Amino acid sequence: MNDQSLAVETLALRDLPRQESRLTTYRRRAVTGPVFLPTYVTPLDAETGQGPRAVVHFTTGAQAVEVEIDEETGEVQVLKLVSAYDVGKAINPDMVRTQMEGGAVQGLSTALLESIILRNGQPMNPSFTDYRIATAVDAPVEMVNIIVEVPQDDGPYGARGIGEHAMVPTAPAIANAVRAAVGVEIDSMPITSCRRTCPKQTTAHAASHAPHTERTACRGSFR
User: Fold this and answer.
1) N or C: which end of the chain has fewer CB within 10 A?
2) Is 164 an annotated catalytic residue?
3) Which of 101, 164, 185, 214 is catalytic?
4) Is 24 contained in some domain?
């Protein structure tokens, strides 16, 4: 029995004790392969939350966005999103690009859509019917992904991670683009509507700088 068939059977088990046994076996097999875990990584101090080197590496990057805002409805649409990340070595370039795109759409979802509504401590939108997340329909019209490769000295083949990094700068970039277009400082998410705060006249093109971004450009639909 190979690992692939074992994984399929594990998902189809009918009795819990047997499932736990198979899962344990599968997990043991899964960790027998190559693992990148440098010996210099140290745990965090329980009192201070600090450590000499608690992470393997830092991935650096930037995003720039161009948005369009509807004057009547306040709807914000991301027209273009450009991402650039130093991944050390893109072992699988296509996978790296899709990771960058997926992370950016997650960040867009945080900026424009996701909001949990609580009433007396109880969530009022506990399902994806009411708790909106971004889908392909909400993705930017144009996405550009730039891969930078400066090898990590001790990374596998010089690679470093590109996981959650891709969603970190998206929300502040969009917020700053909205500010650049309509002059409104955004201090909370999601940016659901600019209708009550957007001025009737604004510049058609504007640019600003955001934390985690190099340049944020905004285009308003107020011409």
Assistant:
1) N
2) yes
3) 164
4) no
Residue 39 in any domain: the answer is: no
Q: Which residues neighbour 119 within 8 Å (Cβ) at sequence distance 6 or greater?
A: none
The enclosing domain of 117 has a CATH number of 3.30.365.10
Domain region containing 81 = 61-219
Q: How many domains does the chain have?
A: 1
Who's near 193: CB < 8 A, 6+ residues apart? 73, 74, 75
> Mind listing the pLDDT tens digit of every residue in the chain (223 residues)?
444 444 444 444 344 444 444 444 444 455 455 666 677 888 888 899 888 888 778 889 999 999 999 878 888 999 999 999 999 999 999 999 999 999 999 999 999 999 999 999 999 999 988 899 999 999 999 999 999 999 988 888 999 989 889 999 999 999 999 999 988 888 889 997 754 455 543 333 333 333 333 333 334 322 2
